[in-house]
Amino acid sequence: MSKWRAPFSTAIAMATGILLLISLFVPQLNIVRASLLGWAILLSAVALLLGLVNLFQVHLHNIRNKEKGIYSFVLLAGMITTFLITIVQGREGVLADWLFNSVQVPLESSLVALLAISLTLMAARLIQERKDMASQIFAATLVLILLGSAPIFGLDLPLFSSVITPFISRVLSLGGLRALLIGVGLGTLATGIRILIGSDRPFSG
Amino acid sequence: MTYNYSQDPEEQLPDWLKALRNQQDEEPVADETAAEKPAEDTDGSKEEEEEASEIVETNIPQESPPSADVEEETDPDWLAEIRQRHQEDSTADEREIRDDLEDTQPRLISTPPEEKVEEHAPSDEQLSEAFDEMETIESPEPEGEELAPGEVPSWLEALRPAGADKASGPASATQPSPRKERKEEQGPLAGLSGVLPVEPEITQIGGGKSHSGQLEISRIQKQHRSTLEEMIAGQSATSETVSQKVARPKPWLGWLVAGALLLASLLPLLSASESAPLPAANTVPAVSALYDLIEDLPQSAAVLVAFEVQASLYGEVEIAALSVVDHLVEKEAQINIVSTHPTGPALADRLMREGIGETESYLNLGYLSGGMAAIRHFASHPRETNLLPSLWNAPALQDLETLSDFDLLLIISSDADDARAWIEQVGAETSQDMAAVSSAQASPLLYAYLQSEPATLKGLVGGIQGAASYENLRNQDGAARYYWDSYSYVLGAAILLILSIGLYKRILPGEPQQAAQSEEEKP
Predict the structure, then answer these.
(1) What is the value of pTM for the model shown?
(2) CATH number, domain B275-486, options 1.10.10.1800, 3.40.190.10, 3.30.70.250, 3.40.50.10160
(3) Chain B touched by A109 (CB under 8 Å)
């Protein structure tokens, strides 16, 4: 049975992809496409639940083997508590809302705030330690962007805020980002074609 | 090998030259072969001796002495020179042939030992046939002894096309070539070399083309080969890792940076300073475009808000979104919120309740699982998606069937990829305008959609700077104004820290020990 799994899954993936592709040009197949997309949405929700179960198992294993058990214990305790409270009270419950707005959001925001401090330090060390041309250009661009992002100590610098920074962010940076988008589009197209012709089989293991 | 007489060049000779030839043939020819007949006469039969002598006679070209009288009388000088040179050449050729025959004749006439004959000797008929074949090969007219075998003078031989003489010339038939020098080891021809052809005739026409075993490549191909070899060598060769010791950052430096940034952000907030000027109105076209879009919305317009915000970046996006959403509320728009992030609906509720203070003018459709596929499905069949079904029955949504029924699609996103998914999947399904509010890190990517032709995005507010500009347009002080000074001072502090920490080692001379140590660490 296992030897048929890969060809079977490949055939299903190819047929589904081709059917969805054809449905874009044949309006009568819109119902089929809607059904398939509905299945995909349900499956992704199940996958989220499976990820939750897997996370639970991994940290339970850590607690049993005493591998950083304290962190795993805190995580499992928080996860079970939040899950139960949200199940009981619903998403808009008082306690569930408090847990989310007073614990999760400040924690994640604090991590990003720490990122600002570490990035500043790393930029200083970049200038300090790296003397190659690319690093110097990177550091110079960073300083120019910062100078034009807002008034510095309440003092507006028109040369930077109106000329240099807009030129860097909306001309130089935009060119690179457009190239990035084209590359992403071509990569997506290539991946789709590879799956449609059966050359790429990420689902068959 | 047989000689092709149909191509005999003598037939093409002029008449006067043929006359000379006939006159020359009529003169007596000395029979030298009889004198050279070997005296050794062993067990061979008489018939065999006679046949062998005939073969020898026919193999040896008859030497014809020049008739000087005729030449002097009839030939011009140039022809006399040619004839003399021909005679010299033919004499040399004949001498070589004669030497070869002297080597082969005794063995041809002599018979092998009886034991060998008994073992390998063919029958008499086979032997006679073999000799007949030899006669046929060497002499087409063996019975006419007085007629000399067709010989072509060397000067005429030279006029032949190149290669023809190698294939079918009579001289070549008599001259042993290296390829024919195969020595017979068995049978009555044992000991003879070059009697029978080694290879079929077809293989002897023309010179064999020798093929080199070496690969023939051009100069460009050689260059490509060397380039490929260099690339392969570069891949296999491990690059020497230049180890450079870098001092670990001092712990107090991290505390210094954190303290300076914290101080720069808190001081303006605590002092409620509003010294930093807001960006001038209409300086950012994307912000102005979004402002105009909302201003042009009809009364109670239906607006779909895709709230793709992560909790970690909520602080920044909240400031950017507050002024725009507040503008929508001010226009009494019906806001419908959907999100593909699990935390999105909760954050949207927080924004609307705590930021705007509204609980009635919006509908939170909830979490849309499935990522990009879900967005695609929602764009084509909004009512068939697995959102909260009861909300679709709300009075504000009863008349909405497709996304084009909404007056505006507003994407509030902290990540560029989330916004890109909505733009690409929904853009083809709706004819209504799309606008975005994003974090500062996502806005550069979204500018690509803003400046496309036709523009996919009609307006964009990015980060605190965009929000400050939007508030300036609305002549209203909001969250952006509140944090603008803090933002300004933090940016100034960050620039100062980066430059001062980064450049002090370069500007100020280091301690002697440190300098010496750094010199030693250089590879």
Answers:
(1) 0.62
(2) 3.40.50.10160
(3) yes
